[in-house]
Amino acid sequence: MVETARMAAAPTTIETTTERFRADVLDASMRQIVLVDFWAPWCGPCRQLAPVIERLVAAAGGKISLVKMNIDADPLIADQLGIKSIPAVVAFQRGRPVDGFVGALPESQIKGFLERLVGPIEIEGDALEAAQALIADGDLTGAESLLGELAGGEPPNAKAAAALLRLYIDSARFDDARAVLDSLPDSARRDNDVAAAAAALQNAEQAQDLGEIDDLRHRINSDPNDFQAYFDLALALNAKGLREEAANALLEIIQRDRSWNDDGARKQLIQFFEAWDPMDKAAVTARRRLSALLYS
Known about the structure:
With 296 residues, this protein is of the alpha/beta class. The protein has helices spanning 5-8, 21-27, 44-59, 76-80, 107-118, 127-136, 140-151, 158-170, 174-183, 186-189, 192-207, 213-222, 227-239, 243-256, 264-275, 281-295, and strands at residues 14-15, 33-39, 64-70, 88-93, 96-102.
């Protein structure tokens, strides 16, 4: 469930045509304000705007209805209104256009636009939950837009920033992730989720230039004392989501030579723990084995 019960019950967005425009928009606007979102399938900013405006319209609790119009399929109405650029959103009231905007504006500006039309809007739904739902549906662009808006707020939403970092890491967009992390104030970086995502980013960046897993294993078979190969193998395995095997490679180093690389294997294992869920099975098992090696 993406939003609250009230939002979930909001009317479904209508996709109108030139033939239905009078009924869907002009006549409907005699009863309530109707927003028309002019878009096209090729328009990237249109895809960014859509989930944001849909959430806000739903949060208005029935005060506004949303209609979408594909200008590729139906260009006439957009031409009549003088729309030259998309996304373009036009508000209709009592059969007439009364306000509008062009471009994928930040959520705060869109919210202000809608509130000028219908008064205060309280967003009851969990925006982070909405973003996770978008990710689950494969709409990474929509999720990125929503999370970016939250993470870029004042003050920034640390949980949203952490989720955005994870989205970029999972997509191997490390430069974008680093830019988000660098933009956060110290107070947000101290958040546990942000700290964990930052550790995951560092692990992923370290793994970028490593050899293939099979090559690293071959190095170890050729020289069982090649601890750097074990270390690189741990990073490569972790990047593939093979956490238990990654921990085992580092534990092998710790067991055989705790002092290697200035205790580097233990430090890297701790960084893995910071990046993983504390209750992750691999983390729990590795913590137990590490404790046994250090204190038994």
